[in-house]
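Postdoc handover notes: sequence design on the structure in folder B. Input tokens:
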């Protein structure tokens, strides 16, 4: 499938569409800073992409999905000057196949970050506030070694560890831990922060790198890619954090994944080899509990012209298997995807693969989109995918919620909840995977929501029903934990529409009334099929 844009941030939205944020001002056709993709219209490029608009340059910004009742997208930071202070919101509207009307809202004179940030990270905390971390003061600017909260609470918090490791700590990896603390990883280090003070509580062991270079890094510009491994009811096992790939100061890409359980004081980094080296890659959580690893280069670092030798091979990481047996080789693509490529999960269970903007005459800018069909998509061709219906889309912690399996056997059935993700530079902000407790009688099943906001920060989730053969249904978006930070009332300025508090906005109406509608391993470059079943072309 062709595209009109090379997205730098990709965010699946609760209406089944995909938000693309891209560097603005680069000339037609991709000069608006933002587009919305409707995958159901993939046979018509004009209809599939709706231009949206931002007022400042969102180049190398951060995004995430808010837990408000509308599921708005938040974007922060940017390229230079006023852009770096940017705080922008987008209210998803219109179901697939219907053209939406909403656009990004932004006014730096009303609402801005306390510190201007280029390459920052963001995370929704257990209390519902948004934590913003790190970055630099514009393109290759001074370090911004601070943390701050949105909505604004107090001054910024200075982080000496971010100052000391600049410029090798950009887009740091963040996670709310079940203990209630916060995990942050940057360069080749990691710490646990107190969620109330944002001050360090404990320093974790340094992250192993290359055999011959201990100073290898995992965050930008060495750019590995990170995921939180599945949390399974009754949530007694410690949460593990997985980081794959990265590079060394000399540009030697890494051939390993590392993982750790931060809440376990005795935990050490565990190393697993990958078949090839990979830097500036992507990783996507899948509804069966596995992870797709794709894109990137075999040598170099992140940045324009710095990554070489595209890694065309996709890998599958399965944490249910024994250590050192978790990585399987999947299909190859013919499209090299280097710096500024993304990979996100669509509601139908496929992975949308986009971009490559290396600004390097050796490698083209890549406008084509692909979809990767994980193994369960191939298996589903020989059997019927499960389907389900659910009326309660707004779950309290610990609540038991009923749903009906309309098609499929409930024996061995699982439910997976995948947190709404914004993907950029190897960082999938908002990513979490849960397998909550579920019981069934006949075709009626009951799922129990995760128990608290430390185990499960408030968020929107893609809910999948997964049958005993590992084949998932299509997703329905549900919210867990409400909106404890009152983000639905924020920001209270004339240039921003807010959804207010209360239960989730029901599907149905579209447009200016701001009522969003819900959307009900191989590659595909979006008409032409290649000889490998796992690779297709998503061609418009």
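Designed sequence:
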């Amino acid at each position: 499938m062709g595209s009109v844009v090379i997205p730098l941030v990709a965010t699946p939205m609760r209406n089944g569409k995909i938000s693309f944020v891209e560097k603005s001002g680069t000339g037609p056709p991709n000069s608006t800073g933002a587009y919305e993709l409707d995958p159901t219209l993939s046979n018509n490029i004009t209809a599939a992409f709706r231009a949206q608009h931002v007022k400042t340059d969102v180049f190398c910004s951060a995004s995430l999905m808010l837990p408000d009742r509308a599921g708005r997208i938040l974007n922060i930071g940017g390229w230079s000057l006023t852009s770096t202070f940017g705080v922008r919101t987008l209210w998803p509207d219109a179901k697939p196949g219907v053209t939406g009307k909403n656009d990004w809202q932004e006014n730096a004179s009303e609402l801005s970050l306390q510190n201007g940030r280029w390459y920052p990270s963001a995370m929704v905390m257990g209390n519902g506030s948004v934590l913003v971390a790190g970055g630099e003061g514009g393109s290759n600017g001074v370090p911004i070694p601070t943390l701050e909260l949105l909505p604004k609470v107090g001054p910024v918090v200075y982080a000496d560890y971010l100052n000391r490791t600049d410029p090798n700590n950009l887009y740091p990896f963040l996670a709310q831990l079940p203990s209630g603390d916060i995990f942050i990883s940057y360069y080749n280090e990691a710490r646990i922060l107190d969620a109330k003070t944002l001050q360090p509580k404990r320093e974790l062991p340094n992250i192993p790198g290359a055999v011959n270079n201990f100073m290898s890094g995992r965050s930008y510009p060495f750019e590995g890619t990170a995921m939180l491994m599945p949390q399974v009811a009754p949530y007694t096992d410690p949460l593990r954090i997985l980081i794959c790939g990265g590079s060394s100061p000399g540009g030697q890409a890494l051939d390993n994944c590392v993982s750790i359980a931060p809440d376990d004081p005795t935990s050490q980094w565990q190393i697993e080899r990958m078949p090839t080296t990979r830097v500036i890659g992507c990783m996507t959580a899948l509804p069966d509990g596995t992870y797709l690893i794709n894109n990137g280069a075999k040598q170099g670092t992140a940045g324009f012209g710095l990554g070489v030798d595209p890694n065309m091979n996709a890998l599958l990481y399965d944490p249910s298997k024994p250590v050192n047996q978790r990585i399987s080789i999947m299909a190859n693509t013919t499209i090299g995807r280097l710096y500024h490529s993304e990979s996100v999960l669509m509601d139908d269970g496929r992975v949308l693969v986009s971009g490559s903007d290396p600004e390097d005459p050796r490698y083209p800018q890549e406008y084509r989109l692909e979809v990767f069909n994980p193994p369960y998509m191939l298996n589903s061709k020989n059997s019927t995918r499960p389907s389900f219906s659910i009326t309660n889309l707004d779950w309290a912690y610990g609540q038991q919620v009923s749903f009906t399996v309309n098609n499929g056997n409930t024996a061995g059935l699982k439910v997976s909840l995948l947190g709404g993700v914004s993907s950029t530079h190897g960082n999938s902000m908002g990513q979490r995977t849960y397998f909550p407790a579920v019981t069934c009688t006949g075709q009626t099943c009951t799922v129990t929501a995760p128990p608290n906001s430390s185990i499960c920060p408030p968020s929107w989730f893609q809910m999948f029903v997964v049958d005993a053969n590992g084949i998932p249904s299509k997703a329905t978006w549900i919210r867990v934990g409400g909106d404890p930070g009152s983000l639905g009332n924020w920001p209270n300025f004339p240039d921003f529409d807010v959804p207010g508090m209360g239960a989730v906005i029901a599907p149905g109406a579209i447009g200016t009334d701001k009522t969003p509608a819900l959307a009900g391993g191989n590659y595909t470059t979006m008409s032409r099929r290649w000889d490998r079943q796992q690779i297709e072309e998503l061609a418009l």
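Context for whoever picks this up: The two ends are 4 Å apart (CA to CA). Don't rerun without checking with the PI first.
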